[in-house]
Amino acid sequence: MELDEGVLTAARIVTGGAFAIIGVRNIGKYRPISQMIGANRFPMPEFLAATGIAMQIGFGALMAVGLFPLVSALGLLVFTVVATLMAHSRGMYKEKEQRGAEVGSFLSNMIMVGGLLALVAAAL
């Protein structure tokens, strides 16, 4: 089965652009993000927050403009899996309502993982 290049290009622009925009927006949320990471008992929360934001912007921009499609898809895949496990693990939240919301966020992120896996496969 051959992929349509136009559809693949659109997928990369939409996915990469969304990650880059979210990363830029997260610059303004740097402190709350690093506090959440620290509250979840991960080491070096400031470094992890900055690294995550840089990955969103950098790999997202690379993907959106079509540079290094395999590297950018793998970078965003790694970011999404790690960030999901750090921020949306069900066991981190004591309140039942919060756990339910986190399950929804976890599943939404797994949808992104599926799309990124497809972009990785297309770049191979």
Task: Give a written overview of the molecule.
With 124 residues, the chain is mainly α. The chain has helices at 5-27, 30-39, 45-65, 69-87, 96-123. Helix 2 (30-39) crosses helix 3 (45-65).
Radius of gyration over alpha carbons? 15 Å
Query: How can the largest sheet be summarized?
Result: none
- The count of DSSP E runs of length 2 or more, i.e. the number of strands, is 0
Give the fraction of residues assigned to helices. Answer: over 70%
**Number of helical regions:** 5
| Poorly predicted runs of 5 or more residues | none
Q: Could you provide a short overview of the structure?
A:
This protein is mainly alpha-helical. The chain has five helices and no strands.
Write a concise keyword list for the protein shown above:
124 residues; mainly alpha; globular
